[in-house]
């Protein structure tokens, strides 16, 4: 398995939760070793299986610590300006998400703030949040647009998102979310705005290479299944994969819509029914669960986790980091919430921020598991057992983070 040349780096004396597809549970290897060459994993296995005489330019002993793949936050709106703390105060006073949206608040107040902000200001604010995630072992982050809602401002958000990946040792995946909300200048004409997305915004953004995928918000307060379907067809015409904010506040058959279009993921899913879960299972669409929004909105109905299990739907867990419904910069806390609020098992949670999150981004071949040939993105934890990674609220047991074979601060 190992190549003959020395490893660039070699980690010894670790317990590995490989998340390898073939293995049961977490794919655990006790007393394991990982070797990296050119940023990729060149050896992973029991230390005793290392080829005789294997050498490395740098060797690190981990003294029984646990290693997982670097964590993946696969659903964020991390590039934004300002905050919506006042709106939260309104909600605590009894207003709901729809009340706030209909009153012109919610997403549209973030749109105003983003349109007024410079790229530099957006980058500085987003980097502070990115740094919080990296400190918890995150090595891949998805970032959506959707607070610009016109071509110039959507491009601005996506350029800032791309620049975050250049500014930090992290893999940044971008998603165009033009169909997030109706901008005020559309004067209530949802169909005309969808036309503009399909014929102007999406082609320009695709041509500039600014988006890795296309997302939409299918909900009574946002866009209908028919309107989202048009966006998805346009995206596919440009060779871009799709994903969907689905069934968050009501059952709008968003899960089935996403599945019908072969979406990488459908996200939120509190109100998804059995048929929606079955469609997702058949299509291989990942369920991205976002307990931070569920918690902040004080929702009562949890996603149908048992139905997802019955239909073999992969489940990912993410922060949904955004200024309104999920002001959350801790993936570890989202993981704890996914277990506590949604009833995921420890193994499901850990797969949900590694292998399944990679699948939700279409990156399963390159990240999300410890396997030869994958990127050497590692999170090294000072824990005795994997459950301790996200058991203690407010405690971060990360020992070291490795991105593309390099130990980062
Ligand atoms: Zn979202």
Main attributes of the structure:
409 residues; alpha/beta; eight-stranded mixed β-sheet; eight-stranded parallel β-sheet; 14 helices; 16 strands; 34% helix; 22% strand; binds zinc ion
Structure description:
The protein is α/β, with parallel strands linked by helices and 409 residues long. Helices cover 34% and strands 22% of the residues. The strands form two sheets. Strands 1, 2, 3, 4, 5, 14, 15 and 16 form an eight-stranded mixed beta sheet that branches. Helix 6 (190-207) packs parallel to helix 7. The radius of gyration is 21 Å and the shape is globular. The two termini are 30 Å apart. It binds zinc ion (ZN). Zinc ion is lined by residues 75, 77, 245, 320.
Give the low-pLDDT segments: none
What would you call the structural class? Answer: alpha/beta
- 3D shape: globular
The amount of helix comes to 25-40%
| Number of distinct beta strands | 16
Largest sheet: 8 strands, mixed
- Radius of gyration from CA coordinates: 21 Å
Distance between the termini: 30 Å
Summed up, the helix count is 14
Query: What's the pLDDT, averaged over the residues?
Result: 95
Q: Are any ligands bound, and if so which?
A: zinc ion
Strand percentage lies at 15-25%
- Quaternary arrangement of the chains shown? single chain
């Amino acid at each position: 398995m190992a190549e003959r040349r020395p490893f660039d780096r070699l980690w010894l004396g670790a317990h590995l939760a490989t998340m390898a597809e073939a293995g049961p549970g977490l794919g655990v290897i006790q007393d394991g070793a990982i070797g990296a060459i050119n940023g990729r994993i060149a050896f992973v296995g029991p230390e005793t299986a290392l080829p005789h005489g294997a050498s490395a330019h740098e060797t690190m002993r981990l003294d029984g610590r646990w290693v997982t793949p670097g964590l993946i936050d696969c659903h964020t709106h991390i590039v934004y300006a300002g905050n919506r703390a006042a709106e939260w105060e309104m909600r605590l006073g009894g207003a709901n998400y729809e009340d706030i949206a209909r009153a012109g608040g919610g997403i549209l107040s973030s749109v105003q703030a983003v349109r007024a902000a410079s790229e530099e200001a957006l980058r500085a604010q987003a980097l502070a949040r990115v740094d919080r995630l990296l400190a918890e072992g995150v090595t891949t982050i998805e970032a959506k647009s959707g607070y610009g809602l016109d071509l110039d401002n959507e491009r601005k958000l996506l350029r800032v998102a791309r620049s975050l990946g250049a500014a930090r040792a992290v893999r940044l995946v971008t998603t165009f979310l033009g169909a997030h909300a109706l901008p005020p200048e559309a004067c209530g004409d949802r169909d005309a705005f969808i036309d503009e997305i399909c014929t102007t915004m999406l082609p320009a953004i695709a041509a500039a290479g600014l988006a890795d995928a296309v997302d939409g918000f299918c909900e009574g307060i946002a866009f209908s299944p028919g309107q989202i379907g048009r966006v998805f067809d346009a995206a596919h015409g440009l060779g871009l994969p799709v994903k969907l904010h689905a069934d968050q506040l009501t059952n709008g058959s968003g899960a089935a819509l996403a599945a019908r279009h072969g979406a990488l993921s459908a996200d939120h899913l509190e109100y998804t029914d059995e048929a929606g879960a079955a469609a997702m299972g058949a299509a291989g669409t990942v369920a991205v669960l976002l307990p931070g929004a569920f918690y902040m909105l004080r929702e009562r109905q949890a996603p149908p986790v048992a139905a997802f299990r019955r239909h073999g739907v992969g489940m990912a867990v993410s922060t949904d980091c955004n200024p309104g419904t999920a002001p959350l910069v801790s993936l570890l806390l989202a993981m704890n919430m996914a277990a506590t609020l949604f009833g995921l098992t420890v193994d499901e949670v850990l797969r949900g921020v590694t292998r399944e999150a990679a699948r939700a981004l279409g990156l399963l071949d390159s990240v999300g598991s410890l396997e030869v040939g994958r990127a050497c993105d590692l999170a090294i934890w000072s824990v005795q057992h994997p459950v301790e990674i996200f058991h203690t609220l407010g405690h971060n047991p990360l020992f070291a983070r490795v991105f593309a074979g390099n130990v980062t601060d």
